[in-house]
Design brief:
about 475 residues, alpha/beta, seven-stranded mixed beta sheet, 20 helices, about 50% helix
């Protein structure tokens, strides 16, 4: 049986996630917040109370960039020490010998490149002045950070950037709805796709590639067979094989993580992608990294976000004020309370969703730690918060689907997948072709050009409106 990236086995052979996840958070906090580390270490109800410890991971690093980076470094080190590759240390995956060789099938599209940035939105294709107006409206409404307007505006001004000449964008989780494969190929870019060996996924991607203007690079076990039938790699067991395949591709590599799975599998995939990145960077030092962050996490946010949120809170309707008081009283302050202290600078936007669980939070936090560490080390890193989106992986959860349906009542816009992935692909192009903006503190890097959908600038702390949004969403769906 092949070795796989996994949680360590307990004495009874089980591979539970709680002890490892709690240990990683504890180790990360110990670097800057010993009291917080002790609280995490002694937490006896991890699955229900993990939120406060993940918030602490952000708060402990806000005042000092060195503390922020120490948390990231310690968290990544803990991942390396606690996770395993088979029954061996995780580091063995970096130097492991491949068990097979993947070759490349190159699929070149038959269409002409899309000549300018066009954003699908509610059945329309926004471009030029109309797209700028939509971006400005989103910014005014608090749906995106103002820096998104500038970043996407640069791409509108430089349509020649869209093809990303000289680069190969590696998309891990190429079949994901939030992945950038379709827009990048439409613009004429070169994309290396990594996903599981599932013929249905590859048939769909091959069709997208043939109908596009770009070039899709597909890893296959046997180039003589139908590509869809032999394409793909399982990253959990085939880090060495995938790394060696990527190492032989032309162009500067941009390794993008768009992987998603439920529960502990998501952590395992994030760790496998991180090990893959280390191995690829070892042989291709100019490799860049790309990540999409979830808005349902904890972030430090600029004072302008706090101010807009405060204006929304003080300016809410009389009805909202009247109804809000008994709701806060009846729930002991858990519902519809303001998002930030009025003078917070920076603020802490806490949008963690309990239903998503501690494994989801850890999987995304590992990516944030790697982005911070790689950026500190001088590597090109494209990192952006993506908006909440109606992907199948989210709306299959009935509670989240209902909350999404009611979110607009609280100033939060839920995006359709084609709008979200095109917008985020444009930000990726801006970072690769136009260069990444540097900031004094890593939290500012994370907040730059964030498309959070309104969660950072809403009047209410996100978790305090989630339940009410779900109730309103359920009611609207039944009507």
């Amino acid at each position: 049986m092949p070795s796989t990236v996994d949680f360590p086995a307990a004495a009874d052979g089980s591979r539970g996630t709680t002890a490892t996840g709690r240990g990683i958070v504890t180790d990360a906090l110990r670097a800057a917040d010993p009291v917080g580390a002790r609280a995490a270490e002694n937490e006896t109800a991890w699955r229900s109370r993990y939120l406060q410890h993940f918030r602490r991971l952000v708060e402990a690093g806000i005042d000092d960039p060195r503390a922020w980076l120490a948390i990231a470094d310690s968290g990544l080190t803990s991942v390396q020490e606690r996770m395993v590759f088979g029954d061996r240390p995780l580091s063995d995956a970096i130097g492991a010998v491949p068990s097979r060789t993947l070759t490349t099938v190159e699929v070149t599209g038959r269409s002409q490149p899309i000549p300018e940035l066009a954003l699908p939105y509610h059945g329309h294709s926004l471009r030029g002045g109309e797209l700028r107006d939509r971006l400005a409206a989103w910014s005014d409404q608090g749906v995106i950070e103002p820096s998104v307007v500038d970043a996407v505006g640069d791409v509108i001004d430089h349509p020649e950037w869209l093809s990303l000449d000289g680069h190969t964008v590696v998309v891990l989780g190429a079949g994901a709805e939030m992945g950038p494969v379709a827009p990048l190929l439409g613009w004429g870019a070169r994309v290396a796709a990594v996903d599981l060996p599932r013929p249905a996924v590859w048939e769909r991607m091959l069709k997208v590639a043939r109908d596009s203007a770009g070039t899709l690079l597909v890893p296959v076990a046997d180039p003589g067979e139908d590509p869809a039938g032999s394409a793909g790699a399982d990253l959990l067991t085939e880090v060495p094989e995938t790394a060696d395949w990527l190492g032989g591709l032309d162009g500067r590599l941009i390794l993008g993580n768009y992987l998603y799975a439920d529960g502990g599998m998501h952590v395992r995939l994030s760790v496998a992608a991180d090990v893959l990145g280390s191995r690829v960077v070892g042989v291709r030092p100019d490799t860049g990294l790309a990540f999409l962050a979830t808005p349902t996490d904890v972030f430090a946010v600029p004072r302008s976000a706090v101010e807009q949120s405060s204006r929304a809170y003080t300016g809410r309707s009389r009805t909202a004020k009247v109804l809000g008081r008994p709701l806060r009283w009846a729930t002991r302050g858990r519902l519809v309370h303001r998002a930030y202290p009025p003078e917070a600078d920076p603020g802490v936007a806490d949008a963690l969703v309990p239903a998503q669980g501690p494994n989801y939070a850890l999987a995304k936090r590992i990516q944030r730690w790697r982005a911070a560490a790689a950026r500190r080390d001088g590597r090109l890193v494209s990192f952006h918060v993506a908006p909440s989106t109606r992907t199948q992986s989210v709306i299959k959860n009935r509670a989240l689907a209902a909350a999404y349906a009611g979110a607009r009542r609280f100033g939060v816009e839920i995006f359709e997948p084609d709008t979200a992935n095109t917008l985020m692909a444009a930000l990726l192009v801006r970072d690769i072709a136009g260069g990444v903006t540097e900031h004094e503190h890593p939290w500012q890097d994370e907040a730059h050009a964030a498309a959070h959908g309104g969660l950072w600038r809403s009047a209410y702390e996100p978790r305090s409106m989630l339940g009410l949004a779900a109730v309103l969403g359920y009611a609207a769906s039944h009507r």
